[in-house]
Amino acid sequence: MRQLRFTLLLAAVSAALFLSACSRGDSSYPVRTYSMGDRVELGHIVYTVFETQWMTQLGEGDTVRVPQHRYFLVRMSAVNGAGGDLIVPNVSIEDDNGNAYTELSEGDSVPQWIGFLRQVRPAEAAQGNVLFDAPPRHYKLRLTDEIGDHKALVDIPLSFTAETPEVPVPNKDRDAKDRARDLLRK
C-alpha cells in the first residue's frame, strides 16, 4: 500500500514537472504582425518602422562595400518608455520560407545608421537605418522587448524605389507637332 502511494505521488510529480517543462514562459502573449508605419509597443520600447531601401553597394571608390546578396536598409525608431536607460535589442528579418537574416554590425557608409549597440535614455529614441545583407524578397522584421520575452513582426512588402528620381525628357516630336497644330489654327 505504501509503495502504491509512493508510485502515485512520483507519477503526479513527474507529470507536473513534464507539463511545466513543456509550457513556455509567457505563452499568453501573442506574436502580432503589424504594418509599416504602425506603432508597436513591446515592453518599455515603442517601435515604428518607416521605410526601406535596397542598395547594391555602400560607399564609393576604394572604400566601397559590396554585399553577398543586396544591402537592405530599414529606417526605424525605438523610443524608451522606461524609467531608466535600456538597451534596444538587435532585430532580424525573416522571409516567407523561414530564412532569417540578422542585422549587420558594421555601419560604415550606411546613411543615418542607428548603430549596433543602442543604449537609450528614458523618453529618448534611437532612430536611423538598420542594415541587412539579404536577397530581395518579402520580409517580416522581428522585434523584441528589452528582455526578449515579447515579440512582434512588422510586414515589409517587397518594393524597389529608384535611388535617383527619373526626370522626364521632353518629346521633341510632340513639341513640333503641337507647334504645327498651333500654326494651322491661326
Describe the protein in words.
The chain is α+β, with helices and mostly antiparallel strands. The chain has a single domain, classed as Sandwich (Immunoglobulin-like). It has two helices and eleven strands; from the N terminus they run αβββββββββββα. It has helices at residues 2-22, 172-185; strands at 32-35, 39-42, 45-55, 70-80, 86-88, 92-95, 100-102, 118-120, 125-134, 139-144, 151-156. The strands form three sheets. The protein has a five-stranded mixed sheet, with no helix packed on it. It is elongated, with a radius of gyration of 27 Å. The model is unreliable at 15-26 and 162-167 (pLDDT under 50).
Domain module count: 1
State the helical fraction: 10-25%
Return residue spans where pLDDT drops below 50 for at least 5 consecutive residues. 15-26, 162-167
CATH fold name, please? Immunoglobulin-like
First-residue to last-residue Cα separation: 119 Å
Percentage of residues in strands: 25-35%
Structural class from helices and strands?
alpha+beta
Mean pLDDT: 82
The biggest sheet, with number of strands, parallel, antiparallel or mixed sense and barrel status, is: 5 strands, mixed
User: So what's the CATH class?
Assistant: Mainly Beta
**Which of globular, elongated, flat, extended, rod-shaped describes the shape?**
elongated
Computed over alpha carbons, the radius of gyration is 27 Å
Spatially, the strands of the biggest sheet line up as: 1-11-10-6-7
Continuous helix count: 2
Order of helices and strands: HEEEEEEEEEEEH
CATH architectural type: Sandwich
**Tally of extended strands?**
11
